[in-house]
Amino acid sequence: xxxxxxxxxxxxxxxxxxxxxxxxxxxxxxxxxxxxxxxxxxxxxxxxxxxxxxxxxxxxxxxxxxxxxxxxxxxxxxxxxxxxxxxxxxxxxxxxxxxxxxxxxxxxxxxxxxxxxxx
Length: 119
What we know:
Number of strands: 10
Number of domains: 1
Structural class: mainly beta
CATH topology: Metal Binding Protein, Guanine Nucleotide Exchange Factor, Chain A
Low-confidence stretches: none
Number of helices: 1
Mean pLDDT: 90
CATH architecture: Beta Complex
Strand order of the largest sheet: 4-9-8-7-6
């Protein structure tokens, strides 16, 4: 399923071919994701295309610096990230997908507090 992903101000736009339906959205309870509270769906890295605003994206990393979290530096909205659990996969912010009613979703949870890389 191909979707359009935008930040709040419109400076960043992605075209993404999702690897799963939006109804498969999950939240993570790691120290970072629990504060951001955004539900995500999966896409392979090669299926995430920055249509516009590459220069408006900023990167946040910490810890192992494997995960790469991207935000619009104009409006501050998190659009997507490369996963630590699988660097070939991205989590895409469901709230940024055009036409998605986030109130209609019941996201599951991913146990990020007990990530295998932290053992």
